[in-house]
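User: Structure please.
Assistant: Input sequence and predicted structure:
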Amino acid sequence: MSEAEHESVSESGESPRPRRRGVLAIPTMLTVMNVLFGFITILLAMRASEANVLGDPLRAGRLFQLACWALIVSAIFDTFDGLVARLMKATTEFGKEYDSLADVVTFGVAPAVLVYAWGLHLFGRLGAGIAFLFLVAGSLRLARFNVISAKTDHRYFVGLPIPAGALALSSVINYAPQPVTDKRFALVMMIVTICVAFAMVSTVRYRSQKFKNTQKPVPVQVVLFIVLMIALFLKWPAEFMLLLGIVYVSSGPIVKLWNIAFPRAAEAEAAAPTTPSGQN
């Protein structure tokens, strides 16, 4: 009798009721949608690359932009699959492992193909190697999380989360979706890709936004801030995503330097009570 199929035995000693399979299917289907849109990202990137080779950069730019939005949709499904599983009390080891495998495809393979087809292809095999470096770093990031997740402060990610790394690259592409033709700009993007890859496998801490206690009251100011962010996103989506990516990726090193400069503040924060959360 496995945990995934049965509830715990009641105090009266009665046999546990079988858990409805639909409860477990909902989070799994959200993860499947995550993989689906990651796959769509890859297909759109390949079509964009083909259009660029055929001499239609405008169509290629539109396809690259659609690929970036498909990756954003994947990130939304990735956020909600864990949240729904916790709300429905349907978290399982299978779900955790499947989510990690899905993230390798969606936030590892898809952005690697996307950034190569968009700009790194100008460097040939070197560009392909840098895209592969991003994929390897993301997969190592996920593997390390699976090993140390129970031993770390759940308020923070150890290293840049792989979805954040993927969205950081796609935010640049979404802001300037036309295929890269200038090798100097492609070189800058290569350096950015390398930095993001190493940020994922670093020990720099990034603030976690996933909380297990979803019933905790939220201050009105937080709600208003979220509404403001949504309004800015609707008005300037590409600019908003680019700025958000830059701020979050740089937040880890900035906070680390701040803690080095002011160690007492860092010790006080470390002593604060923690709230468990999921991370990937």
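The chain has one domain: 21-208+217-265.
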